[in-house]
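Hi C.,

You asked whether I'd gotten around to modeling the 409-residue construct. I have! Everything is below, sequence then structure, no commentary in between.
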Amino acid sequence: MNASRVVVVAAAVLVVAVVATGGAVGQEQVTLTVSVTDQNGDTVGGVTVEATWETESGETETATGTTASNGNVLLDVPEGASVELDVDDDAYVRNRPLRVANASETAVALGVSRSGTATVTVVDDRDRPQANATVRIREDGRTVDRGETDADGIYETARVERGTYEVVVVKPGYFEAQREVTVARNAEATVALERGTVTLDVRALDDHFDPPASIETGAVRVSSPAYDAEVSVTEGTASLNVPVNDVYTVEVVKDGYDASNERIRVRESSASVNATAQLTPALSVTPANERVLVSETTRVTVRNAYDERVPGATVEVDGDAVGETNDRGEVDVEISSTGNRTIVARDGSVASDPVTVEGVDTATDGNGSDGSGDGDDSGATDDGSPGFGVVAAVLALLAVGTASRLRGR
């Protein structure tokens, strides 16, 4: 045999090994000797046993076999794996798989039971069938089967081990009901539900503040697929009676506010929840002057919906960004040309309404003595000088000095 043929044969053997071991090259296999017995301790032959485990790559692999007349079956699994053993049979069942941790060459006893089912019918206190009720079959405090009733109020369980179980039924708007049922080959049980309500207290809070501040007026809305109500808020609180055993969405309803939806599960006793909202985001722009000499600046203050000064807001003049507000929410904006200039502030996706400032060439432009058009001289620059700032103040001082020299002659 030449060298190339040896390589081909070796590769083929490797491929066969990989396939046979599910890709786990080099992983040792161990044999589990599984003995299947029924609830009386008798061996059970002809039952399919399935072993399931998870590989290191997260995939699920299985090995199956059928028990011999002595109730035994041999299953090869990876050494050290966490393996679950279950049966797949028409007559026998396990409520839960048997877990074998850290698999090794060992014997495992797997108990099974004859299977049975239960048909559960759910009605209300007027004997009317109740659809969409949740039915749970519990054993020793653990749920072994669950489902919902159909349009006729009926739920048929999966196959479970024969024995005694607790049937628990719940539906939104009704108190939870329980009863015991013994499952043989086929069992039947009827469970009656009773309507009920409890009190739900809702506190309306503005969580813009820390701690959140009470929203004294407005309303709250409480809803679920089967319930919807809106009640007024009095002194920050709303109370209402809601059906038991349901999940509700709660929100504040008030003009000018954006609400956050809260969810609460209400069971069979009174409950309370905080519902939060904040004022709808908004910005306002306040310039220090309505009319400004060209090439001079006016101070612009930006505030939010809570009348708080906003740092870091971008201020635009006629669509062009000219600066950002400082820690006091202020920025000095230069008016570079005559006419109406439009000022807008932006913070993220929120923009203010536009504000107009007029740029003028001289302090006397317009109809009034100060160029305002109405004779009112109420405008002031940031240095407190009347009119249009430093230029106007200098002109006034020069005029006073000239008048004094004339009187001294």
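If it helps when you're writing up: The longest helix spans residues 390-408.

Thanks,
B.
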